[in-house]
Specification:
Length: about 80
């Protein structure tokens, strides 16, 4: 597979501004994904968003879900493998 290499296109007149814009777009996409995940968790748990404790419950579930995906599937220590 060939990749075409060349200069990056400049849209806003400055390469640094273009990179900043690209970073903001990526972060905005990530926030959108996280908002959908929290909404899905709240809907699945039947949690209303108005209760202050409900937000912390939903966030703790989201953190648990994300850390579960990040952990390796196998044993983490040598003593665990039997």
């Amino acid at each position: 597979m060939k990749t075409v290499r060349g200069k990056r296109p400049v849209y806003l007149g400055d390469a640094h501004t273009d990179r900043l814009l690209a970073a903001v777009v990526v972060l905005t996409q990530e926030v959108g994904v996280l908002q959908r995940r929290v909404a899905a968790l709240e809907a699945a748990a039947g949690i209303e968003g108005d209760d202050p404790g409900a937000a912390s419950i939903a966030m703790s579930r989201l953190v648990n879900e994300l850390t579960a995906r990040a952990e390796p599937a196998g044993p983490t220590r040598q003593g665990d493998a039997r």
